[in-house]
């Protein structure tokens, strides 16, 4: 391979979680039946005017604060002019030379090495509608095409990175970090598979030591974090091969195919669009006040990195567990909620990472819509500590019931007769029966093989269907066997 | 009856001397007799109008929610959206377009109880100064049927001048209310940019467009402006400032009013007839106690060029949506998307609209943007500053509304540049965003001449006052 380094920059589009569209009051629900969430404004009827959705600005400012960006005192919407049937006005309202925020960064970690990736800008724009083609998979050659404007003018936030990314792995780490952050601060669902987060990648290579960038290509159609990495690996390799063979890279847009795991140029004739950007005269500049920004700052809350450190330091949770829990904002909140009524964060963390995650996976459920409440988990863990429930019963019977939606632990215990047997008399009589029926093992124990004790414990647990208190059983057995 | 003003008719309506239905029917009778010559209207809405008149009569009878416009017949320029009624912009591309909503101004007119007679002709998409650019019909000047009514609100001006409506709405991007008012001998007011909501006005040049009244006298213009004006959350460029009671500003005492005469608009390019009428008007102001001075706007000479970069640039983008996809004309000849776009727009737009789209597209193109569009924005700022400076020493500025009286139909049709120059006095006002009114101030060969009075931003009161004082002391507005 040639002595080249790879330069990658990512342009990310995030669908904002607002209730209404970017410039009108229509619901931001584009999954609904076609053309049900539309109005004169978002279908580009003559004479209509856009009105900025304040919530969308708020969410973008929130993102800017969470990514260390500088929020511009004055930013301007601009028209990006091009004709296409999914764009009702035949221009897209976007931002151009004066974006909402600039000059931020995200810190990523790859193989234990931390690195800052610069964020060039964050801006707001409107999405286009959706076209459905009959008789072909695109408009060219189709019998006819249908337009659904439910998605037209829904809010999009574009986050552009600096060309600071050097490997496809870093690109993947950046995307994961960004997605996690956006989901965490509640501005976007951030699911690449569902399209709520989309990514275009610019990639070029240059000889190590050279300052100027090489010719870049733009990669589209990557629908998962993994695909981002694979596509960039494939394209990186293609660039190197072309250059090694003495060829030149053509600046173009290429599409990644999940099937072939390769990128493919779409146009034979490359023409550069002239979008004729100019300031949107129907809107006034955005000038967020300092007070408003400070109000929004309060809603950002603790960011994942900080939270992770706190869990490790204050709660004594392992780094792996802390990372696992914090990577799901709901789980992190769940942990903190549970500690309010059960003061053993480490134990809670163990259950979250271990039993609860396993049980959810087994029943094909996700943490996002978990039926278990923090109070229930706290109650269950306390019952285990108090010896009312055995760990085994809690894990195998109570937890699955709670995850299915049962709302009373006491109810489950009563219904299934799960109370731990701590009554000495009852346990003594069970232990004695077992000793009587296993003389061989009694001999072994008496001859000094103390490990056989665990055989007897197991038998008692079996006889009580796990309801016996293991500590009490051991004590009783030891005494009975010595007799 | 129909030659009366709205405020006179209001008195008759509340005194029950006439009914609104009666008035509407009289207007439609007049339309029947003169419309074949004038051709002011694209669409007449008689059935709806009679219903609105009946509702108005009920309001008048019950004396509930009676406004100065209740029961008054009004014409709406056909670039303002009306729910369920054609809104064509006088373009073939929208010849079949029925808007699904009412413009804010139309809503306000309906709420006030006025009676909408129909939709008036204009230069296609309001691009022009003679209404000859209408893609649908030619409107004639009621004062001389061989002449143009001015434009682009030529249909509205002609309708009011010919008593085919008592009042009319117009829109003004570079003079489209004031110049036709001047040509037809009536009153037209362009409010401050942001004073009246543009929601529902089919955009020509968003940063310049403004809706305003066309009326038979200053009082009527004030009454109609009162109803139109006000902040609208649907228009982000409308400004949230209080709307004063405009009728209160209609006083004849203008002693000490500082009137600035724009030097650049009293020289070359202004016809002798017009110049002498304006000079007489200035003399009249002096008689009435105003203090006259001469002011200069050095950036003035660049106004028309600046306008013809900014307005077409915005128009090229605003008119992109007429693509045959969603509404309006769609070419039946096309086999694919690109030819559908090409053919639809080729068939749907007229020559002047195409000329401006091409001009605007060019001005915004990569490599030309800085030299044209951006430079034009900078000159616009200079023009604005010149007006601010002049108006810091004067209460109002005056000039002719148009360099000439109404010209003959066809006279300038093949000379776009000379047509563009007919807006030389009105264009700078739109670039500066300030309010201006045109009132009749003289005649030349029985053709009316308009005086333009300009004021400070959001100070429509002072120009109304200056206009009213002149009107009350002259009788040019009564000449037919």
Automatic annotation (TrEMBL), chain A:
It catalyses: L-glutamyl-tRNA(Gln) + L-glutamine + ATP + H2O = L-glutaminyl-tRNA(Gln) + L-glutamate + ADP + phosphate + H(+); L-aspartyl-tRNA(Asn) + L-glutamine + ATP + H2O = L-asparaginyl-tRNA(Asn) + L-glutamate + ADP + phosphate + 2 H(+). Keywords: ATP-binding, Ligase, Nucleotide-binding, Protein biosynthesis, Transferase. Its EC number is 6.3.5.-. It comes from the Bacteria. One of its GO terms (molecular function) is transferase activity. It is an enzyme of class 6 (ligase). GO terms for biological process: translation. Residues 333-481 form the Asn/Gln amidotransferase domain. Belongs to the GatB/GatE family. GatB subfamily. Allows the formation of correctly charged Asn-tRNA(Asn) or Gln-tRNA(Gln) through the transamidation of misacylated Asp-tRNA(Asn) or Glu-tRNA(Gln) in organisms which lack either or both of asparaginyl-tRNA or glutaminyl-tRNA synthetases. The reaction takes place in the presence of glutamine and ATP through an activated phospho-Asp-tRNA(Asn) or phospho-Glu-tRNA(Gln). Heterotrimer of A, B and C subunits. This is Aspartyl/glutamyl-tRNA(Asn/Gln) amidotransferase subunit B. It comes from candidate division WOR-1 bacterium RIFOXYB2_FULL_37_13. The lineage of its organism: Bacteria, Bacillati, Saganbacteria.
TrEMBL record, chain B:
It holds the Pfam family Amidase. GO terms for cellular component: glutamyl-tRNA(Gln) amidotransferase complex. The active site is at residues 77, 152, 176. Residues 132-153 are annotated as: Disordered. GO terms for biological process: translation. Signal peptide: none annotated. This is Glutamyl-tRNA(Gln) amidotransferase subunit A. InterPro entries: Amidase (IPR000120), Amidase_CS (IPR020556), Amidase_dom (IPR023631), AS_sf (IPR036928), GatA (IPR004412). Heterotrimer of A, B and C subunits. It comes from the Bacteria. Gene3D superfamilies: Amidase signature (AS) domain. GO terms for molecular function: ATP binding; glutaminyl-tRNA synthase (glutamine-hydrolyzing) activity; transferase activity. It comes from candidate division WOR-1 bacterium RIFOXYB2_FULL_37_13. Belongs to the amidase family. GatA subfamily. Its EC number is 6.3.5.7. Residues 22-464 form the Amidase domain. The keyword Hydrolase does not apply. PROSITE patterns: AMIDASES. Allows the formation of correctly charged Gln-tRNA(Gln) through the transamidation of misacylated Glu-tRNA(Gln) in organisms which lack glutaminyl-tRNA synthetase. The reaction takes place in the presence of glutamine and ATP through an activated gamma-phospho-Glu-tRNA(Gln). The gene is gatA.
């Amino acid at each position: 391979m040639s002595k080249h380094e790879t330069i990658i920059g990512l342009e990310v589009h995030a669908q904002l979680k607002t209730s209404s569209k970017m410039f009108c009051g229509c619901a931001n629900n584009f999954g609904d039946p076609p053309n049900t969430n539309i109005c004169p404004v978002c279908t580009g009827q003559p004479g209509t005017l856009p009105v900025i959705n304040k919530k969308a600005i708020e969410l973008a400012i929130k993102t800017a604060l969470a990514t260390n960006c500088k929020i511009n005192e004055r930013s301007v919407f601009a028209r990006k002019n091009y004709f296409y049937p999914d764009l009702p006005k035949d221009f897209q309202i976007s931002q151009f030379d004066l974006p909402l925020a600039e000059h931020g960064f995200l810190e990523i970690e790859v193989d234990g090495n931390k690195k800052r990736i610069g964020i060039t800008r964050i801006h707001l724009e409107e999405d286009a509608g959706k076209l459905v083609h009959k008789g072909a998979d695109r408009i060219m050659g189709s019998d006819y095409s249908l337009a659904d404007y439910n998605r037209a003018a829904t809010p999009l936030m574009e986050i552009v990175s600096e060309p600071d990314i050097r490997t496809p792995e870093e690109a993947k780490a950046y995307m994961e970090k960004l997605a996690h952050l956006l989901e965490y601060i509640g501005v976007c669902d951030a699911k690449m598979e569902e399209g709520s987060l989309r990514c275009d990648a610019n990639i070029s290579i240059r000889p190590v030591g050279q300052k100027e960038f090489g010719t870049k290509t733009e990669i589209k159609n990557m629908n998962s974090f993994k695909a981002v990495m694979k596509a960039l690996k494939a394209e990186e390799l293609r660039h190197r091969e072309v250059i090694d063979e003495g060829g030149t890279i053509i600046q173009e847009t290429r599409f990644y195919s999940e099937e072939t795991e390769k990128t493919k140029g779409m146009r034979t004739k490359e023409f550069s669009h002239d979008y004729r950007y100019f300031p949107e005269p129907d809107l006034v500049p955005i000038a967020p006040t300092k007070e408003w920004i400070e109000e929004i700052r309060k809603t950002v809350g603790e960011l994942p990195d900080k939270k992770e450190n706190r869990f490790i330091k204050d709660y004594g949770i392992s780094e792996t567990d802390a990372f696992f829990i914090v990577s799901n904002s709901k789980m992190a909140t769940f942990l903190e909620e549970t500690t309010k009524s059960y003061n053993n964060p480490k134990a809670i963390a163990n259950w979250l990472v271990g039993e609860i995650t396993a049980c959810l996976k087994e029943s094909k459920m996700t943490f996002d819509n978990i039926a278990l409440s923090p109070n229930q988990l706290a109650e269950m863990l306390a019952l285990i500590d108090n010896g009312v429930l055995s760990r085994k019963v809690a894990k195998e019977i109570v937890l699955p019931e709670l995850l299915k939606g049962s709302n009373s632990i006491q109810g489950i215990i009563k219904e299934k007769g799960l109370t731990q047997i701590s009554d000495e008399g009852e346990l003594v009589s069970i232990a004695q029966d077992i000793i009587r029926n296993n003389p061989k093992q009694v001999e072994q124990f008496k001859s000094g093989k103390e490990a056989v004790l665990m055989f007897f414990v197991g038998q008692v647990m079996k006889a009580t269907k796990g309801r016996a208190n293991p500590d009490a059983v051991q004590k009783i057995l030891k005494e009975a066997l010595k007799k | 009856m129909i030659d009366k003003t709205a405020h006179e008719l209001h008195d008759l309506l509340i005194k029950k001397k006439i009914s609104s239905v009666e008035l509407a029917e009289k207007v439609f009778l007049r339309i029947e007799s003169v419309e074949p010559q004038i051709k002011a209207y694209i669409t007449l809405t008689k059935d709806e109008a009679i219903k609105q008149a009946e509702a108005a009569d009920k309001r008048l009878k019950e004396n509930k929610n009676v406004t100065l416009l209740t029961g008054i017949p009004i014409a709406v320029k056909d670039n303002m959206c009306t729910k369920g009624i054609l809104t064509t912009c006088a373009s073939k591309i929208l010849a079949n377009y029925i808007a699904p909503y009412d413009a804010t101004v139309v809503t306000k007119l309906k709420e006030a109880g006025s009676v909408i007679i129909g939709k008036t002709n204009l230069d296609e998409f309001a691009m022009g100064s003679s209404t000859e650019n209408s893609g649908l019909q030619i409107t004639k000047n009621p004062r001389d049927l061989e002449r143009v009514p001015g434009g682009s609100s030529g249909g509205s001006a002609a309708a009011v001048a010919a008593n085919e409506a008592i009042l009319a709405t117009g829109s003004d991007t570079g003079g489209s209310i004031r110049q036709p008012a001047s040509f037809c001998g009536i009153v037209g007011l362009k409010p401050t940019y942001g004073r009246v909501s543009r929601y529902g006005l089919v955009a020509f040049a968003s940063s310049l467009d403004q809706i305003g009244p066309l009326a038979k006298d200053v009082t009527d213009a004030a009454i109609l402006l009162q109803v139109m004006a006000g902040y609208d959350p649907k228009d982000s460029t409308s400004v949230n400032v209080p709307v004063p009671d405009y009728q209160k500003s209609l006083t004849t005492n203008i002693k000490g009013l500082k009137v600035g005469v724009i030097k650049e608009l009293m020289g070359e390019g202004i016809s002798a007839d017009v110049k002498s009428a304006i000079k007489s008007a200035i003399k009249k102001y002096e008689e009435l106690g105003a203090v006259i001075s001469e002011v200069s706007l050095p950036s003035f000479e660049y106004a028309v060029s600046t306008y013809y970069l900014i307005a077409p640039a915005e128009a090229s983008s605003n008119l992109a949506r007429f693509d045959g996809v969603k509404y309006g004309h769609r070419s039946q000849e096309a086999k694919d998307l690109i030819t559908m776009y090409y053919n639809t727009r080729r068939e749907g737009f007229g020559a002047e609209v195409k000329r401006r789209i091409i001009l605007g597209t060019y001005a915004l193109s990569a490599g030309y943007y800085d030299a044209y569009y951006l430079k034009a924005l900078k000159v616009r700022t200079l023009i604005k500053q010149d007006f601010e400076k002049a108006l810091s020493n004067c209460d109002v500025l005056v000039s002719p509304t148009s360099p000439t009286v109404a010209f003959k139909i066809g006279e300038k049709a093949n000379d776009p540049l000379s047509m563009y120059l007919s807006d030389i006095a009105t264009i700078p006002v739109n670039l500066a965003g300030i309010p201006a009114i045109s009132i009749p101030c003289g005649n030349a060969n029985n053709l009316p001449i308009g005086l333009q009075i300009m004021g400070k931003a959001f100070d429509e009161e002072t120009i109304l006052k200056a206009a009213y004082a002149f009107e009350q002391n002259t009788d040019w507005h009564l000449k037919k």
